[in-house]
Design goal:
The complex is a heterotrimer. Chain A is an all-alpha fold. Chain A is 73% helix and 0% strand. Chain A has a domain of 184 residues: MetI-like (MetI-like fold), CATH 1.10.3720. In chain A, helix 6 packs across helix 8 and helix 8 packs across helix 10. The longest helix of chain A has 34 residues. Chain A is globular, with a radius of gyration of 23 Å. The longest helix of chain B is centred in the N-terminal third of the chain and has 32 residues. Chain B is an all-alpha fold. Chain B has a domain of 172 residues: MetI-like (MetI-like fold). Classes of the chains: A mainly alpha, B mainly alpha, C alpha+beta. Chains A and B meet through helix 1, helix 2, helix 4, helix 5 and helix 6 of A and helix 1, helix 3, helix 4, helix 5 and helix 6 of B.
Chain lengths: 273, 262, 357
């Protein structure tokens, strides 16, 4: 389909992405590197070193890292089970994970308050079977919980997709050559699923690191993540310059994740048709 | 034994994923306004839902936004995807790289960057700014859903159509487009879903006076959620669930008709 | 002789600085079955795509029926193509596939229906109108692809390795089918393949190509019996290609032994290549042979035995219905008519002409 006509078809998209992706990102840098008078400054960026900002960044990094690891540990076995199901219908799987999106994301997260509260559903059940009550609402644990809940599908789906694509004969070949189940997994399945794992990690880590909603809803507004700080600079304090400066710091982590995911994304667009 | 464990594990994860849905549906029948106390069974939130003009307005805004942004992004995204495949490798990689930015970037950064754009160019915040933002984050979903379909295309089919006398445009419409249509539809559905579920980007690009369901709910978090919202969410969720079950029970309903039409 | 229908003049084409066709000249007569034969990458498919209008040559002209069609887009050409992997439209049934070109030309419904019936009958698939392409076997899909092309009454049918995806038995059946179709339709077939057997079976004319050059054009018999160079000899069938010296007209020294031959005009004491087909070598008692050797390998091939005979430092490939066990001393005899003398390649370029597959 090499045709000049087709090349022109991307013009609207090129214009759109310059106008609404590239220029807005330049705006972030413009505002982040200037002060209210419009003169150049690094102070918005260096303000990340202020204890209150730095603490929020550290907490966000810590909580999102923990959530990402737990998501990975929970997702991998699930993805393996699902990919081995005979009736493994790819479309249905995606639907099952997309379906909750039709219930509002804020309400879904708020529902965990009802479930996790000191007198909530889970604790009622726990008391009934004489387990100690969970006191996690309005703590960092609740935020981790909310992150895992919201982002788990983003970890499961890429790993599931990669696992489904592995040629079952490779596993048979490994067994044929004398590898046991564990060796087959470690030497064949796991290395082949690395692209899925990497893409899952970036898809969980970035939204977890940058969230302000989950901490808002489940952390009882006591715990500020870097996302909360930025959001407040924009909506409460209208200090777009400071908010942009902190966003640039945040983007540093995003860019690192992106680079990692691009390096591992051999399936993506490296290959010519 | 291992199989039982696998089933239990899978079931636990799905309980984890779907427990909040159950909670919300239960809350929609709760006579008490509290999220943690059961005040008896009631239908009143459902009954009052449709007469609540502010919720209905937010619903209307949400749906209109989702429809418009899904249509526009599907159009721009589909023709862009077709075009991307006709580019040389380097340019193609660049285009797909740019496409990936809104997908991989944090929503908060996308949100504030658009907010800054509108501030800088003095665009009045309102429905239009939200729509522009939604189209922006929806296009990548469409492109990434159409691209694999285009890659799978048999390039000879397009050439065969031209060989048989079809002009490039006709060959495209008659042979290429029907083949990528499923990708176009799933991209549009994805875009629609993402638009309905979005809160963060809308939060930064909406002006005062315009609300989607998401932003309305967020504004109620501190003072307490209006239980009518639970009712509305339950209705939407159940409707989608039923639609999906119907579509999956009748998997050939769409296919067979497309063969016979001329 | 019928007139020239297609004329390719000085066609060159390169992709990313890699020359695929170099100043190619070729004409094709009306009602001819022409096969472009060569290893992959020899330029045969590019030639076909230039004819079909899917590629445009960097230089040169394509003349069709006296008119220059070099710049004419594919959809305006009076040629139709049968693609390598059939390229049936999977979302249309068989009738819709066949009707595609006719509908574009706004033919009447009854005309189209007649044509579909006629085409399906021609390819022996009557009653398949409402089937979907996916439900057909490879051979059936191939027939539909042919039917879809011929209903448009092209003057030329281009076939791009159409039998490549079929298994051996089906391929052989389809070869006869194609010859029959060609005779019934009375149009020109231009056929691309890397399979020498296909080419020899079906063609009126074979064009052997390699690395963007035409190596030889001729009837199957000419190509097989009188290959013009080592590449053609090697590519078409098995052969013994031996470095030799032409002593004088009708006498050649092969591996130090003088053989009578029938070729003339190469000069005296000139280095040449000699081609001897394995079936043209006669194994006799050692004392009756021109040279003597020893059988080193033997394989039973059904119709004949394939043997290798070591003689004068060269492994001779021999096909014979008579069996000589390994280790047996034999004599080699060759009829002068079966010794084919070829000039050595003159340049490095031609030297590079080797089979790469």
């Amino acid at each position: 389909m090499k045709n000049k006509f087709f090349k022109w078809l991307s013009l609207p998209y090129i214009i759109w992405s310059v106008g609404f992706i590239i220029i807005p990102l330049i705006m972030v840098f413009y505002f982040g590197l200037t002060n209210k008078n419009g003169s150049f400054t690094f102070s918005n960026i260096t303000s990340i070193a202020l204890p209150v900002h730095f603490k929020s960044l550290l907490i966000a990094l810590l909580l999102s890292l923990i959530s990402t690891i737990i998501c990975l540990l929970l997702s991998y076995p699930l993805a393996m089970i699902l990919s081995n199901m005979k009736s493994g219908n790819n479309k249905l799987m995606i639907l099952v994970f997309v379906l909750p999106m039709w219930m509002n994301f804020l309400l879904r997260t708020l529902a965990w308050q009802t479930l996790l509260e000191n007198e909530g559903v889970i604790n009622t059940i726990f008391r009934f079977v004489h387990l100690p009550a969970l006191k996690i609402i309005n703590t960092p644990y609740a935020i981790v919980f909310g992150m895992i809940y919201n982002f788990l599908p983003f970890m499961v789906l890429p790993i599931y997709n990669v696992l489904c694509k592995i040629d079952k004969n490779l596993l048979n070949a490994a067994r044929d050559l004398g590898a046991n189940e564990v060796q087959t997994f470690l030497k064949v399945t796991l290395p082949l699923s690395v692209p899925g794992i990497i893409s899952g990690i970036t898809m969980v880590f970035i939204p977890a690191l940058t969230t302000f909603v989950i901490s808002d809803l489940l952390g009882g507004s006591k715990i500020l993540l870097i996302g909360n700080v930025i959001e407040q600079e924009f909506t409460l304090n209208s200090n777009w310059h400071l908010g942009s400066g902190l966003s640039i710091v945040l983007m540093l982590f995003i860019v690192i994740s992106m680079i990692i995911s691009v390096i591992f994304d051999k399936d993506g667009e490296g290959s010519a048709l | 034994m291992a199989n039982v464990l696998k089933k239990i594990y899978t079931a636990l994860i799905f309980i984890f994923l779907y427990a909040p849905m159950v909670v919300l549906i239960v809350l929609s029948f709760n006579a008490s306004k509290s999220r943690s106390k059961w005040g008896g069974f009631t239908f009143k939130w459902y009954a009052n839902l449709f007469s609540d003009s502010s919720i209905m307005e937010a619903l209307g805004t949400t749906l209109l936004l989702a429809l418009l942004s899904a249509f526009i992004s599907t159009f721009i995204g589909t023709i862009a995807a077709i075009s991307i495949m006709s580019f040389k490798k380097g340019m193609r990689t660049l285009m797909i790289g740019i496409t990936n930015i809104p997908m991989l970037n944090a929503e908060i950064v996308t949100g504030i960057s658009l907010m800054l754009l509108f501030i800088f160019f003095n665009v009045k915040f309102g429905f239009t700014t939200i729509l522009l933002a939604h189209i922006t984050f929806n296009i990548p979903y469409v492109i990434l859903s159409v691209l694999p379909r285009i890659k799978q295309l048999n390039p000879s089919a397009y050439e065969a159509a031209m060989d048989l006398g079809a002009s490039p445009f006709k060959a495209f419409m008659k042979v290429v487009f029907p083949d990528i249509l499923p990708g176009v539809f799933s991209g549009m559905l994805m875009a629609f879903t993402m638009s309905i579920d979005d809160f963060i980007i809308t939060h930064f690009t909406k002006g005062a006076g315009v609300d989607t369901l998401s932003t309305k709910i967020y504004s109620q978090v501190r003072k307490g959620i209006d239980p009518k919202m639970y009712a509305l969410s339950s209705i939407i969720f159940i409707t989608v669930l039923i639609l999906l079950i119907l579509v999956n029970l009748l998997p050939n309903a769409g296919k067979s008709s497309s063969h016979t039409k001329k | 002789m019928s007139n020239k229908l297609i004329n390719l003049e000085n066609i060159s084409k390169s992709y990313d600085n890699h020359l695929v066709l170099d100043e190619m000249n070729l004409y094709i007569r009306e009602n001819e079955f022409v096969t472009l034969l060569g290893p992959s990458g020899c330029g045969k498919t590019t030639t076909l795509r230039i004819l079909g209008g899917f590629e445009s040559p960097d230089t040169g002209r394509v003349i069709f029926d006296g008119k220059d069609i070099t710049k004419m887009p594919a959809y305006k050409r009076q040629l139709n193509t049968v693609f390598q992997k059939y390229a049936l439209f999977t979302h249309m049934n068989i009738a819709e596939n066949i009707a595609f070109g006719l509908k574009i030309k706004n033919k009447s419904k009854s005309y189209i229906n007649d044509k579909i019936k006629y085409a399906l009958k021609l390819v022996n698939l009557e009653g398949y109108e409402n089937r979907m392409p996916d439900s057909l076997s490879g051979g059936q899909q191939q027939r539909i692809a042919i039917a879809r092309a011929i209903v448009n009454e092209p003057k030329v049918l281009l076939l791009d390795e159409p039998l490549g995806a079929l298994d051996l038995k089906l391929r052989q059946d389809m070869q006869y089918e194609l010859i029959r179709l060609k005779n019934e339709l009375g149009i020109t077939f231009i056929y691309v393949t890397h399979d020498q057997e296909e080419a020899l079976t079906m063609s009126d004319t074979i064009v052997v190509m390699n690395q963007g050059y035409i190596q030889q054009i001729g009837t199957p018999e000419m190509i097989y019996n009188e290959p013009e160079n080592a590449f053609v000899a090697d590519f078409i069938g098995d052969s013994n290609i031996i470095d030799s010296i032409m002593i004088r007209d009708e006498l050649v020294e092969i591996l130090g032994t003088k053989f009578a031959c029938v070729d003339k005009g190469f000069g005296e004491n000139v280095h040449v290549d000699v081609v001897i087909r394995p079936e043209d070598i006669e194994l006799v008692a050692p004392e009756d042979g021109t040279i003597q050797g020893e059988v080193t390998h033997i394989i039973f091939k059904g119709v004949h035995y394939e043997m290798e005979v070591m003689a004068n430092g060269f492994e001779w490939l021999v096909h014979s219905t008579k069996m000589f066990p390994v280790g047996e001393k034999v004599g080699i005899k060759v009829d002068p008519f079966n010794i084919q003398i070829m000039n050595k390649p003159e340049s490095e370029d031609e030297e590079a002409v080797q089979i790469e597959e």
